[in-house]
Design a protein that fits this description.
FAD/NAD(P)-binding domain; 387 residues; 30% strand; nine-stranded mixed beta sheet; 2 domains; eight-stranded mixed beta sheet; 8 helices; D-Amino Acid Oxidase, Chain A, domain 2; alpha+beta
């Protein structure tokens, strides 16, 4: 049996694990071991695929805005350091019926933090972007400084930077099946192939595997795995990046969708943010089209709101890992063992800032105030939800 001992161990080399390892590689002399069951970037986690929206006027709660602003600073810094294009400034418009809570919260966040946000009626939206079919029962807020992150490029960039650092090692094909408290303190991670990794402090950021691994330590975490669908369509010139922004759309019947203009000829991309099918960790997901509503739940929105979008090119499935309130879960439920999960649906845009925050927590045992929103204690009746 091979045993590797380092100062810090990061289980899961997805967006949060790689971001944290990258921060440690550039800000700490500690030895770091990074583990992944596959070889990142891959399609087995929640944060794969080509693109994610980046916005700062935040419908999920104004408390996220400082974190979003820091993340944007760090994305731009990473672009400069890497020499790669990682962010496409398409702008993002959030659309919904008059009084829709999400769109109202976007506007409230912008007011509170002085963010630039254009408030537009439905007909103004349709005139500005003829790819929308909207009337004045709808309205929206356009954030011109928002846009699209290139996910796969970012993950490849982080991996390359980490692998250049002599203090950081990445072990792929390392499927962690159990975590134990170390006999001399710290923690031991046991892999399916017999390898064992030991460290004083651990970050567990392994998506769907977080809850089962923590259950083995007697800690039950409120994380649910959900199957989601998204698809690409033919679109006319109205949906080119020069003519159409990224978007979120709350429908009159309360469903929530998100989408992207046609980037590099990939097609108009759209998915549904809410709903989905709960699945146990590890269970295979049915492919796109295997469930009855996969096509229709997207097509009904295409038909109603996007007059220049044509035939379905192809669809795909992904997974969300969610908490009950859909806010993140970041805490240290056992001394020296930090968990970071529940990011699905809106977490990737924060990965640069959360990597910094998690690196500080591991290295300096310093939890930034922004992370207090995401602790386990919020499920106590005496605790308020993030606002």
């Amino acid at each position: 049996m091979t045993t590797v001992t380092t100062d810090y161990l990061i289980i899961g080399a997805g967006s949060m694990g790689l971001a944290t390892a990258d921060w440690l590689a550039h800000h700490s002399d500690a030895s770091v071991q990074l583990l992944d069951a596959f070889s990142p970037p891959h399609d087995q986690g929640a944060h794969h695929g080509e693109t994610r929206l980046l916005r700062q006027a935040y419908g999920e709660g104004s408390s996220y805005v400082p974190l979003a602003r820091r993340a944007l600073e760090l994305w731009k810094q990473l672009e400069v350091e890497s020499g790669e294009t990682l962010f496409l400034p398409t702008g993002v418009v959030n659309v919904g019926p008059l009084g829709a809570p999400f769109v109202e919260q976007v506007a409230a966040s912008a007011r509170q933090y002085g963010l630039a946000l254009d408030s537009l009626s439905g007909d103004q939206l349709a005139r500005r972007w003829p790819g929308w079919a909207l009337d004045n029962t709808m309205h929206g807020g356009f954030e011109s400084e928002a846009g699209v992150l290139y996910v796969e490029r970012i993950l490849k960039c982080w991996r390359a930077r980490v692998e250049r650092c002599p203090n950081v090692s990445l072990a792929t094909g390392a499927q962690v099946i159990r975590i134990d408290a170390g006999e001399q303190g710290g923690w031991e991670a046991h892999c399916a192939d017999g390898r064992r990794f030991v460290a004083e402090r651990v970050l567990l950021a392994a998506g769907q595997h977080i809850a089962p691994l923590m259950a083995g330590l007697g800690i039950e975490l409120p994380l649910t795995r959900v199957r989601k669908t998204f698809a690409w369509y033919d679109g006319d010139a109205r949906y080119d990046t020069a003519n159409f922004p990224g978007f979120s759309l709350t429908t009159p019947w309360g469903a929530v969708y998100y989408g992207f203009p046609d980037i590099d000829g990939a097609g108009f991309k759209m998915g549904r943010h809410d709903s989905g099918q709960p699945l146990p960790p590890g269970e295979a997901m049915p492919g796109f089209g295997e469930l009855e509503d996969d096509v229709s739940e997207l097509q009904q929105v295409v038909d109603r709101y996007f007059p220049g979008v044509g035939a379905l090119r192809f669809g795909a499935v992904c997974q969300y890992i969610r908490t009950p309130d859909e806010h993140f879960l970041i805490d240290e439920p056992l001394p020296g063992l930090i968990v970071a999960g529940g990011f699905s649906g809106h977490g990737f845009k924060f990965a640069s800032a959360l990597g910094e925050a998690l690196g500080l927590w591991l290295d300096q045992q310093c939890r930034l105030p922004e992370l207090a929103l995401f602790g386990l204690s919020r499920w106590s009746p005496s605790q308020d939800q993030p606002s």
